Amino acid sequence: MSLKVLILGVNGFIGNSLTESILKKTNWEVYGMDMSSDKLEASLGNSRFHFVEGDITINKEWVEYHIKKCDVVLPLVAIANPALYVKEPLRVFELDFEANLEIVRQCVFYNKRILFPSTSEVYGMSSEEEFNEENTNLVLGPIHKQRWIYSCAKQMLDRVIYAYGDQHGLDYTLFRPFNWLGPKLDRINDAKEGNSRVVTQFISNILYHGEISLVDGGQQRRSFTCIDDGIDALLKIIENKDGQASRRIFNIGNPKNDFSIIELAHMIVDQVKTYPDYREKAEKVVIKSVESGNYYGQGYQDLGYRVPSIENARKYLGWEPKISLQEALKKTLDYHLSDRSHAAEIEDAA
Ligand code: UGA
Fold it and tell me: Lower Cβ count inside 10 Å, N or C end of the chain?
C-alpha cells in the first residue's frame, strides 16, 4: 500500500515543491489543504494528489479526518516573514503556535508520524561558529524585540513535540530549514518593501523600485540553501529508511553558501544583468543602507551569522547539499524572468 502524506499549507514555498517531487519520484499519495492553489499548477490533476481549498483553522473536521487517514503529517502552515513578526506578533503566535499545537496533539492521539518545520531562527543570536542540533544554546533578545516571537513559538513547539516523543512515544522529525530559496519563495510582484524574504525582495526591488535596501549595512550573513536540496532531504525524512529519521532533529542548510547580504545583493544584480529584457534595470539599481528601526520597526533585532552543522543529516539521512548559491539564484531567476508562462506575472516590469 502506498504511503499517504498529509501536507497542510500545500501551496506554500515548501509544500508545492515537495508535492511536485513526491508525485514525480515516488508512488505516494498526497492529501493537501491550502487557501489557494496558484503554485500547484504542476500537481493539480495528478490522480495521486487530493487537494482541498480551505483554511486549516476553519476546516478542522477535514484536518482531523485526514490526520486519522494518513501515515505522515507535515503541518507547514505558518507566517515566516520577519516583517510580520514585528508588525503582527499575535497572529504569529496564534497561527504558528496555537493552530499547530492542535495538529501536534491530534498526531499524538491518532499515533501518526509528524514532520514538523522548526527553523534556523531557533538558534537566534547564538555565538557558536556552527549551530548544531544537540548542543547549541538558543539565544533570543528581550521581550520588546518582538522579532523573536516566531523563533520562540517554534522553539516551544519543538520542545512540546520532543516531550510527546519522550513521554507518549510520538514518532516525529524536526527539520530546520536554513534560508531556503528558489522559484516561488514569495511573490516577485508584491511591490511593498518588507513583504518578502531577502532574495525575492531584492529581485522585486531591481524590477520595480530601482533601489535595494541593505538593512544596517548588509554585513549580516546567512547560509542559503536551494529548495531542491531541501526537498531531497525531506523525501529522505519521509521515507525514513530503517527509522533513521525518527525522533531526530535535522538542520537542513548549506554551510558552503555562507554569504553576507551585501554579497547577495551584488550577486543578484550581476545575474539579472544577464537577462537582456532586465539588464538596464539591473545596471541602474542603487544599493543603499537603511536602519533596521526604520525598515522593520523598533521590535526588530538581527543575528550576525547563521551557519548550520549538517553532521546529523549526513550521518542519519546520507544527505549532502549540492547546489551553490549562484546556481540557486539562476534557477530562481530563470523561473521568474525567462520562462514566459511565469514571467507573465511580472510583464509590466520588463
Ligand atoms: C528567515 C525567516 O525568519 C524565515 O523565513 C525562516 O524561518 C528563516 O529565516 C530561514 O529561512 O532560515 P531571515 O534570514 O532574517 O529570517 O530572513 P530574510 O527576510 O530573508 O532576511 C535576511 C537578511 O536580509 C536579514 O538580515 C535582513 O535584515 C536582510 N534584508 C532583508 C535586507 O538587508 N534588505 C531587505 O530588503 C530585506
Answer: N
